[in-house]
Amino acid sequence: MKHEDPNHSAVKRLVWLIFIGYSACLLYWMLWGFGRTVLAEIRFNLVPMKTIIHFMSTMSRGNTVFPIINLAGNIGVFVPFGVMLPYLFTKLRNRYWFSLCFIGSIIVLETGQVLLRRGTGDVDDVILNTIGGMIGYFLYDVLYVRRTNRMRRPGKPA
C-alpha cells in the first residue's frame, strides 16, 4: 500500500486551489475583462505571425507599451499552467501529451472567444500562449522533476 506524504498532499491541494482560481481569472480576462463587449461581427486571424509582425513594426516606430503588454502578456499568462498542469495531471508530465492537450485547450479558448464574439480569435495568440505553456513546462521539469530525481539518488546532495 502506498502512503502519501502529508506535505505533498497539502501542496497538491494548494496547487489545485491556485489552478482553479487562476483558470477562473483567465476565463474572465479572456471573455469579459479589459472592457470587452460583444462584437458586432466575428473576428479572427488565421495568418501565422501576422499580429506578431504588426506589433513588432509598431514597436519599431516607438509605440512600445501596448505591443509589449500584448506579446509578453500572451506568453506570461500561460507560464503558470505549464508548471501546474504536469504537477496535477500525471499524464501531462509527458511532453507529447502536454503539448497536445495544451494546444488543444488554447484552440478551444480562442474558438470560444470567436463564437461568443468576445474578442478576436488569433492564431498568433495560440502560438504565444503555447510558448508560455512550454516555458512553464520546462520550468516544471527543471525545478521539480530534476530536483526530485537528484534528491532520490543515494549519496548525492540535493
From TrEMBL:
Keyword terms, alphabetized: Membrane, Transmembrane, Transmembrane helix
Pfam annotation, one family: VanZ
Domain VanZ-like, first and last residues per copy: 19-143
Lineage: superkingdom: Bacteria
Membrane among keywords: yes
Membrane-traversing stretches: 14-34, 65-89, 96-115, 127-145
Name this protein carries in UniProt: VanZ-like domain-containing protein
Species name: Paenibacillus solanacearum
Taxonomic placement: Bacteria, Bacillati, Bacillota, Bacilli, Bacillales
